[in-house]
Design a protein that fits this description.
single chain, about 80 residues, alpha+beta, five-stranded antiparallel beta sheet, 5 strands, globular, KTSC_dom, KTSC domain-containing protein
């Protein structure tokens, strides 16, 4: 699953799409990952090309596809 950094958003860090599972993963800058199910591949392409990834997610993804969260990874420092 290739990961695409999204520089068009201050809230979204990166996104990835699994064609086999039809899952869209979106990592937010705080570290939390949302995984959206049954997403068509065209939507991922549109997200990567969007002028504002955050606005695109709010308008075309959030609330339209079933989702689950993956808790943020804890970072440990010495």
């Amino acid at each position: 699953m290739p990961v695409q950094e999204l520089r068009s958003s201050s809230a979204i860090d990166r996104a990835a799409y699994s064609p086999a599972k039809r899952e869209l993963s979106i990592w937010f800058t705080g570290g939390r990952r949302y995984i959206y199910s049954d997403v068509p591949p065209e939507l991922y392409d549109a997200l990567c090309a969007a002028r504002s990834a955050g606005r695109f997610v709010n308008d075309a993804v959030r609330g339209r596809f079933a989702s689950r969260t993956d808790p943020p990874r804890r970072r440990y420092f010495d």
